[in-house]
Write a structure and sequence with these properties.
The protein is globular. Helices cover 43% and strands 18% of the residues. By secondary structure, the protein is an alpha+beta fold. α1 crosses α2 and α4 crosses α5. The chain folds into two domains: 164 residues, no CATH class; 135 residues, Cysteine proteinases (Cathepsin B, Chain A, Alpha-Beta Complex). A six-stranded antiparallel sheet has the order 5-10-6-7-8-9. The protein has a four-stranded mixed sheet with strand order 1-2-3-4, covered by helices on one side.
C-alpha cells in the first residue's frame, strides 16, 4: 500500500540558551505518532459502541442493518456524543448496568471522547527534552506528554475497550465464544529507535497486570547494561535473555521450534524471525493464539494497517522465515 506524503507542522520552544532542533523535531514526531495511536484507540472503543447499537435495533441479521450502519452510524452527524446518549438509553432499558456502574461507564466514555478530541484537535509543541499538547476543553489547557501521562491515557483506552466489549457481550452482540483471541494487547514499536522485542515485552507485561516502562525507558536501561549494539537502538540477539531479565521476565529458547498448545498464567511466546516475510529482515512478533493445526495468530508491533496488527502465520513459515521460538514467563 502506498504511504502518502503530507506536510506536517509543529512548534519548537526556543530558549535563550538554545535548543537542539533535530532532537526537538524527533520528540515532536514521537508525540504525533502517539496522537495517531490515541485516535485509533478511541475509534476501537467507538466501534464497540456501534456493535451494541446495531444489535439493539436490528439484531444480528436484519436486512437494513448495513444500511443503518452506513447512513446513520457512519455519518458525520452521528457523533461520539450522540452514540453515548443512545448507549445510555440502551443500558437503562436493557438493565445492562446498575447503580454506580452506569455512572462510571458514562464517565469512562466521556473521558475517551475528551482525550480523543484533545489529541485530534490540539497542537503539539516540543523542545529538545519535552513535548506538550495544547488544547481547549472549557478553557485553554496545556499538558506535558510525560511517560506517566501517556501511561494513564493507555490505561484509559484499554480499560474502555474492555468495558465496551463486555457490554456487547452482555447484550448478545458478541458471543464469548466469538472472542477473537485471549488478551493480546497490541503495542506499536516506537519510531525512531524502533525495537520490536521491547514492544512485545510491553504487550506481555500489560496483559499480566503489570505497569511496564515506556519503550524508550527499556532501551535506555538496555544501553546502561551494555546490551545494545554500538550503533543503533536495538538489543543484540545474544543479549535478549538479559534484556528480558531486566523487567522480571525469564526467557527460554524452545528446541524443535514448536509452539506449545497450552500456556499457563504468566507465560507467553515470542517468535524471532531472521528472514521475516522472506525479505531478509529481522523481526519479533508475539504469539496470541492457535487458529488451526497449521495456523496461528500473532501480535505484530510493526503493523502498517489495521489488518496487519494481528496477522495469521502458518507453521511452515517458522522454517521459511528462519524463526526461533522463545517461551517467556514472569519471574516468581
Amino acid at each position: 500500500m502506498k504511504q502518502i506524503r503530507a506536510l506536517v507542522t509543529g512548534r519548537a520552544h526556543v530558549s535563550t540558551s538554545g535548543i537542539n532542533l533535530t532532537e526537538a523535531m524527533n520528540l515532536g514526531g514521537e508525540a504525533r505518532r502517539n496522537r495517531l495511536k490515541v485516535i485509533e484507540g478511541a475509534l476501537s472503543v467507538e466501534n464497540q459502541l456501534d456493535t451494541v447499537i446495531l444489535h439493539y435495533f436490528f439484531g444480528s441479521s436484519h436486512e437494513r442493518r448495513a444500511v443503518f450502519e452506513s447512513l446513520v452510524l457512519n455519518s458525520d452527524w452521528c457523533s461520539f456524543a450522540a452514540k453515548r446518549k443512545l448507549i445510555t438509553h440502551i443500558i437503562n432499558e436493557q438493565n445492562l448496568l446498575s447503580g454506580r456502574e452506569k455512572g462510571e461507564f458514562d464517565k469512562l466514555m466521556k473521558d475517551v471522547m475528551a482525550v480523543r478530541n484533545a489529541f485530534a484537535h490540539g497542537k503539539i509543541s516540543s523542545d529538545d527534552k519535552r513535548a506538550w499538547l495544547s488544547y481547549f476543553e472549557g478553557t485553554p489547557r496545556k499538558v506535558e506528554l510525560t511517560d506517566e501521562y501517556l501511561t494513564e491515557i493507555e490505561t484509559l483506552l484499554l480499560g474502555a475497550f474492555d468495558k465496551t466489549f463486555a457490554l456487547a457481550t452482555a447484550i448478545g452482540a458478541t458471543k464469548l465464544g466469538q472472542t477473537p483471541m485471549p488478551r493480546c494487547t497490541h503495542v506499536y514499536q516506537d519510531f525512531p529507535g524502533a525495537h520490536c522485542v521491547s514492544a512485545c515485552l510491553r504487550s506481555f507485561l500489560i496483559d499480566n497486570g503489570k505497569t511496564p516502562p515506556s519503550q524508550k525507558q527499556t532501551l535506555d536501561e538496555a544501553k546502561a547494561h551494555g546490551l545494545c549494539a554500538p550503533i543503533g537502538d536495538f538489543v543484540l540477539a545474544e543479549n535478549i535473555g538479559k534484556f528480558c531479565a531486566l523487567f522480571g521476565i525469564d526467557l527460554e529458547k524452545i528446541d524443535g521450534r514448536k509452539i506449545p498448545k497450552v500456556l499457563t498464567n504468566g507465560e507467553g511466546i515470542l517468535i524471532g524471525c531472521w528472514n521475516y516475510e522472506k525479505a531478509g529482515q529481522q523481526h519479533c512478533v508475539r504469539f496470541c493464539e492457535h487458529v488451526s493445526a497449521e495456523k496461528f495468530r500473532v501480535m505484530n508491533p510493526a503493523a502498517r494497517s489495521e489488518k496487519e496488527r494481528f496477522p495469521e502465520m502458518e507453521t511452515r513459515q517458522i522454517d521459511e522465515w528462519k524463526c526461533d521460538i522463545f517461551k517467556i514467563h514472569l519471574k516468581s
